[in-house]
Design brief:
This protein is mainly α. It has helices at about 5-25, 45-55, 60, 65-90, 100-110, 115-130, 145-150, 155-160, 165-170, 170-180, 185-200, 210-235, 255-260, 265-270, 285-295, and strands at about 95, 300. It is built from 15 helices and two strands. Bound molecules: zinc ion (ZN) (2 copies).
Length: about 325
């Protein structure tokens, strides 16, 4: 009996659904070749959408100062891991560190739900090679939504080009972290729920509960952290000033630098990406660099690459 057209499409849809679900847990699960790499993979990104919707439960779980400060602390620690390590270390090799410290901050970065360090660094290196050209997957020239998050919701954005990160992909522990990137955030969420439940019984004066600490510490903190991070792709190539006449549209923006711990000095960064420091001038606050300096004093990192003296000189953009 001949298959009807709808029967013929069912297996393909079914296979796509199975693959999408597998990819939630194992990013190396085989991809179904459905042709269009630039279409949003809605099934795969269900958890990303759910993470946003989960923030709405903040109206049910209530408020406590403890839950709020937990959210702020987790924002700060994870932002530093993203900016200092995912970005300046893994993507740019702007300083050196030991293998245990490298792994420890890879784990903290992975708790941000921004995938593993290999995926992050591979896409970021691609961005610097092709910034604001047609090949740059998150240039705002392709539209705000695509630059902010549309780019990694697609199949093209999901993959990792291992050829561009051979120097860091040689560490099996980092490959493992990348492959099972849901593990660390899941443990953080469970840990927060358990901590909140214990505090509710042991220290009721704090006014927190398991669900409350989960929602503030994980859902709200993670979503704010995520949107702050990706403003560097969407807004820091649009809003701000240009000290250097780089080939791209990068901008320096003090507000974005504040919320991203220094990454908002993005025009500086595109001009000289190799430096551990992105605020070139003394008045350009770069909290990540200060944090890295503190870690260097403690002997945890070393050889922070400086900004060459001649590059600190402000040059107006040529018309
Ligand atoms: Zn950029
Ligand atoms: Zn960069």
């Amino acid at each position: 009996m001949p298959e009807s057209s709808s029967d013929a499409t069912t297996p393909s849809l079914w296979r796509r659904a199975v693959r999408a679900t597998l990819l939630w847990f194992d990013t190396s699960a085989a991809a179904v070749d459905d042709g269009d790499l630039d279409r949003i993979d809605w099934l795969r990104v269900v958890p990303f959408i759910a993470l946003h919707l989960a923030c709405l439960t903040v109206f049910w779980v209530g408020f406590s100062w403890f839950a709020l400060w937990t959210a702020v602390a987790l924002y700060a620690v994870r932002m530093f891991a993203i900016t200092g390590f995912y970005h300046r270390y893994f993507a740019h090799k702007a300083f050196k560190t030991s293998r245990p410290v490298q792994f420890a901050f890879a784990v903290v970065g992975a708790a941000s739900v921004q995938r593993g360090p290999l995926w992050w660094a591979a896409h970021h290196r691609h961005h610097h090679r092709h910034a604001d050209t047609e090949h740059d997957v998150h240039s705002p020239r392709h539209g705000f939504f695509r630059s902010h998050m549309g780019w990694f919701l697609t199949r093209r954005g999901f993959g990792t080009n291992f050829d561009s990160i051979k120097d860091i992909a040689r560490f099996p522990e980092l490959r493992l972290l990348d492959r099972f990137d849901i593990l660390v955030p899941a443990l953080l969420a469970v840990g927060l729920y358990a901590l909140g439940s214990w505090l509710e019984a042991a220290h009721p004066g704090l006014g927190t509960t398991g669900p409350q600490l989960l929602v503030w510490g994980f859902f709200v903190s993670t979503i704010v952290l995520f949107h702050a991070t990706v403003t560097i792709n969407s807004l820091a190539h649009r809003w701000g000033t240009r000290r250097f006449a780089t080939r791209d549209d990068s901008r320096n923006n003090a507000f974005l630098a504040l919320i991203t711990f220094g990454e908002g000095w993005h025009n500086n960064h595109h001009h000289f990406p190799g430096s551990a420091r992105q605020g070139f001038a003394w008045y350009e606050l770069d909290l990540t660099y200060l944090g890295l300096r503190a870690m260097a004093l403690l002997g945890l990192v070393r050889d922070l690459k400086p900004v060459p003296a001649d590059m600190r000189t402000a040059r107006p953009e040529s018309a």
